[in-house]
Write a structure and sequence with these properties.
Number of strands: 6
Number of domains: 2
Helix content: 40-55%
Strand content: 5-15%
CATH class of the largest domain: Alpha Beta
Shape: globular
Radius of gyration: 20 Å
Distance between the termini: 54 Å
Largest sheet: 6 strands, parallel
CATH topology of the largest domain: Rossmann fold
Oligomer: single chain
Number of helices: 15
Bound molecules: alpha-ribazole-5'-phosphate, nicotinic acid
CATH superfamily of the largest domain: Nicotinate-nucleotide-dimethylbenzimidazole phosphoribosyltransferase (CobT), large domain
């Protein structure tokens, strides 16, 4: 665990040194191809040069952290699935059989799962695959924000600090690129609440069907979020207040992963709607985190585009995905790694003996 305080972390985060972008652009200009012919792949590689402060960046060592938590708000009938699915899916992640496991294997990323506050309790010692399960259980699920704050402010801070510590351990172990993932039945509801509060968009614009609620379920979800915001009055200038009042433990954990990427100068690839809600909390605490972030994909959840716009991020992929778990971020890691390989491996005009234009 880290001895740093959250204010110390926020104060230490530095924006990218733009001189590295300039140096990297000079190298890109020498690659044996028409100017910037690989489009955004060049931008990605140059941003990675600036993040790692080198013209030889590496994204070979990759990990996805799937943050898991349950939600009191699930009792309001805002999800198409029951709460037990959270724990059952965490077992599936550990067994290697979920969507994220297949995509992470394809991307060459390890998958770590953190119990940030599930209703169920899994013992790492006795659960198959439990060596990849970490326990930072803040509480066995949040309180319902239909009745009061989802959690105490101290719990919100503890969730962020736990995420920061897990990411720090992975970076210390050599991870060069971190993907964020989530599991928690009903978590598109707090994510939409966070999105509405922090982007200023309406709850109607921000709220989608999640796992697939019907029209009545969607109307109920919008009403629950609208009433929950009116009851709790989260302060949009205070990311911790927003997380505490309408957030979730796994969303706080994701915010901690995002802060850790910026603090340790490592690329973080966020996934869909829930991961981006976590990034919004981190961004509210420290807008500079956006320099270190990559948006893995554009989720089908309609509010996701509004969240990404607020963060100033353009998604790498748009594949009609709406799963979460870190799947879109893990798939995008393959693009990121390819971009860096182009930067390092393509010959210059001089080396190839090709006449420059
Ligand atoms: C089997 C299954 C696997 C999942 N993996 C991710 N989610 C995703 O769906 C949930 C959010 O949607 P909502 O707010 O509608 O409950 C989260 O757990 C998210 O990670 C899943 C959901 C299910 C049912
Ligand atoms: O975009 C996501 O991450 C998402 C969308 C719906 C349900 N679960 C996750």
């Amino acid at each position: 665990m880290t001895s740093l305080s959250l204010p110390a972390i926020l104060a230490a985060i530095q924006p990218l040194d733009r001189t590295w972008i300039e140096k990297a652009r000079q190298r890109t200009a020498q690659l044996v191809m028409p100017p910037r012919a690989l489009g955004r792949l060049h931008d990605i590689a140059e941003q990675c040069c600036a993040i790692q402060q080198t013209l030889s960046p590496s994204l070979e060592h990759k990990a996805v952290v799937v943050m898991a938590g349950d939600h009191g708000i699930a009792a309001e009938g805002v999800s198409a699935f029951p709460q037990e699915v959270t724990g059952a899916m965490v077992r599936t992640f550990l067994a290697g059989g979920a969507g994220i496991n297949a995509i992470a294997r394809h991307a060459g990323a390890r998958v770590q799962v953190v119990d940030m506050g599930m209703a169920a309790t899994l013992d790492p010692q006795t659960t198959p695959g439990g060596d990849q399960l970490k326990i930072s259980k803040i509480a066995p699920g949040t309180a319902s924000f239909a009745r009061g704050p989802a959690m105490a402010r101290t719990q919100a801070e503890a969730a962020i600090m736990a995420g920061f510590a897990h990411a720090t351990d992975l970076f210390d172990a050599g991870v060069q690129m971190l993907g964020t993932g989530d599991m928690g039945i009903a978590n598109t509801t707090p994510s939409a609440a966070i999105g509405a509060v922090l982007t200023g968009c309406t709850v109607d614009q921000m709220t989608g069907r999640g796992t697939g609620v019907d029209d009545a379920g969607l109307a109920r979800k919008i009403a629950v979020i609208t009433d929950g915001i009116a009851l709790n009055r989260p302060d949009p200038t205070d990311g911790l207040d927003v997380l505490a009042k309408v957030g979730g433990f796994e969303i706080g954990g994701i915010a901690g992963l995002v802060l850790a990427g910026a603090y340790h100068r490592r690329a973080v690839v966020i996934d869909g709607f829930i991961s981006t809600a976590g990034a919004l909390i981190a961004h509210a605490l420290c807008p500079t985190v956006a320099d270190y972030l990559f948006a893995g994909h554009q989720s089908e959840e309609p509010g996701h585009a509004l969240m990404l716009h607020h963060l100033g991020l353009a998604p790498l992929l748009s594949l009609g995905m709406r799963l979460g778990e870190g799947t879109g971020g893990a798939m995008a890691m393959t693009i990121m790694e390819g971009a860096v390989r182009v930067f390092k491996e393509v010959m210059t005009f001089d080396q190839a003996g090709v006449t420059a234009g």
